[in-house]
Structures are given as structure tokens and as C-alpha cells.
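Marked as duplicate of an earlier ticket. Keeping the data here for the record.
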Amino acid sequence: TETAWKRIKTDHQSSLSLERYHHSAVVSDHSMFIFGGKNNIATCEPQLIELHLATRQWSVVHTVGTVPSPR
């Protein structure tokens, strides 16, 4: 089993702002979900995005309800 971090190449839509830091992330089943964080201009991004690990494609997860406030 490999335990080292490595960079992987992904496919993404140009409309997604993927560069971010101070975000939350979790892996569940065959996807990694990323929520919030800040982008390169330090604006909070209150969107939930998913990386399908098998296809390495990003997509926006459409949610309902009140977005949690930044912390």
C-alpha cells in the first residue's frame, strides 16, 4: 500500500474555482467533497464541490437550505 501524497491530474470545468485554502474536505465512497475555503483573492467560497475519484472529474453539488457561515 502506498502512503505518500502525490499530485494527480484532474479534469475540471473552467467555471469552477478550484484553487482554495482553509476549506473542509472529506472522502466518502468514491468521491472527495470540498466545502468552503478561500480562493486566490481571499473571498469565501460557500460552494460544495465533488471530485469523482474514479474519473478525476470535478462537479458542483447543488444543495438546499441555509449555507453555513464562514468560521
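See parent ticket for discussion. The CA atoms of residues 12 and 55 lie 11 Å apart.
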